[in-house]
């Protein structure tokens, strides 16, 4: 008899992703991913000036602010057929890269690492031996015995106090935790260091965008940065050099620490290259445009069906006709009204809440489909689509990862092993390395273009009175993001955002096809069903972001203890 | 140098959830603060709040809260109460995470000495909705709670003779209304 487990953070923390699994003979036999909060933010945009939309979309989510701002201006530019000056493209690319680097570091160290790292084993580690181990796999200079001893002391202090605080809810001592105390210590010391580097990445966003978390420098048609090489307040040499320094530091952390840690975890849990595969359809759009028209890009896009890497199809542009025409959203199992799948330009967001029923409606997330099929998006899709097309930078870091994993663990993974939970982590680290390298390139492109005397940052938009429609895409940290806008009489007539976590957290569609989270959980073995660590590992490998896919408004749960009422 | 951050937390697109950013922008428009007082509209931060609070002397947050108290009630939560909350297993990195971020900062030995959450009990969280009546009426009490804490911490501020236009761009009707509260 199958046993049902619900992981519903709403009852325990401030969250909004719910996972239900049925467990039979200690393996997952069925799965449902659902979002427990309504999202109807797009409706706010109807009737507004399309040039202001990005200010609002930037508030869809608190962490992915920048990506929604960017997709929004791109959607309006696409509708107006408006080119974007080179300087603006490079500045935007740098912001997107810095944001993504920040995001990937946060994801691995703060969300996922403790799925694999057992903090309570750290007191048993030997900092001297750990330091030696670290030096054998990375040139990173902050792996000294003293650094590691300091990290161990922090854990000892917490473990000794009996108040685990931030670590109170880990599955410590779980049989699926298998790293040695020394490796646990090493990863934990990097968890502490990661905070500093994620901050440096965000500083780049802040310098170029004026502010974080909400950038101020965007405009439909370009950016609002004033360029003046001799000025300290405008974007000049001083700021550009500061950005260069910050990006170099972040790149070093990504390549010498994050990438190596992911390879080490992969080398020590090789069975996870066989778990969590699920849906092997992948989708990514090209990004980091290299010209003002958006006809060539540094990151390739396309799609792969059913793991057929040889059959990969590429997209020529970020709003490729195939992409534009092939997307629909199905609400058969989502709490919305509507009979048939709709294209986002004619999409509707009218709620019809019924309560959770796994056979009928069970999620606030719609089911987006590409040619009627569910697709997985995110770093794994980006890397596989690039690799399959022979993209040199993707090949370089994918091959490096495979070599590194083999050097640490003696197990040689193949690109096919990337269809897995570990594959998603590896792909994210590969992508972070690629972005770290591209950051330097785009900064140099910007500096060189300014040196030519080009100070243009914006093309003025002209709004037509007749109806136009556009799509703006961005290959965001969690995958393909698309904003779809219809403009009439200089106002927004319709607006839909199809966000990465909508693709990945998709519920079933009318054909009964599972979404990526759901499919990836099937057959997962559980050592202790009452402590479903393995389910968390796979769900976390996607880097879920329900704040975008939906929105919570109960930031504190109910009572949080003794409070003073004014 | 001791620094204090006054951060407004919440989604400005969701009615009463936007009260935190709203209050912070009103404070900016009505008062002048000494240099080491920073005011920021934080939006809806999650685990990335940690690196913003590390190294601060003091932190004052304004946020909407869900509670059994009547809408518009202003409730303050000191640091020790926030730290009592046990973070649970997290499926999603982007849910609000004040307790966790504070604990992480404490673990690094760099948590703010003083933390106060000024919470306003919300009523309505409709997308695009205005502040509800009870929350609108809480504005002055919430501002006073922030200023009282700032004074207790020994930071100074002065009222602007002519208030700046508050940068509450997401709402059409509020600035005039809220200025009336103070005149």
In short:
The complex is a heterodimer of chains A (566) and B (183). Chain A is of the alpha+beta class and 566 residues long. Chain A contains 15 helices and 16 strands.
Structural description of this entry:
- The complex is a heterodimer of chains A (566) and B (183).
- In chain A, 40% of the residues lie in helices and 14% in strands.
- With 566 residues, chain A is α+β, with helices and mostly antiparallel strands.
- Chain A has one domain: Orthogonal Bundle (Cytochrome-c3 Hydrogenase, chain B).
- Chain A has a 3-stranded antiparallel sheet with strand order 1-2-3. Chain A has a 3-stranded antiparallel sheet with strand order 6-9-10, with helices on one face. In chain A, strands 13-14-15 form a 3-stranded antiparallel sheet.
- The longest helix of chain A has 32 residues, at 237-268.
- The termini of chain A are far apart.
- The model of chain A is unreliable at 9-15 and 549-566 (pLDDT under 50).
- Chain B has one domain (4-182): HybD-like (Rossmann fold, 3-Layer(aba) Sandwich).
- Chain B has 7 helices and 7 strands; from the N terminus they run E-H-E-E-H-E-E-H-H-E-H-H-E-H.
- In chain B, the strands form 2 sheets. In chain B, strands 3-1-4-6-5 form a 5-stranded mixed sheet. In chain B, strands 2-7 form a two-stranded antiparallel sheet.
- The longest helix of chain B is centred in the last third of the chain and has 14 residues, at 139-152.
- Chain B is globular and about 45 Å long.
- Chain B starts with a strand and ends with a helix.
- The model of chain B is unreliable at 175-183 (pLDDT under 50).
- Chains A and B meet through helix 3, helix 6, helix 14, helix 15 and strand 16 of A and strand 3, strand 4, strand 5, helix 3 and helix 4 of B.
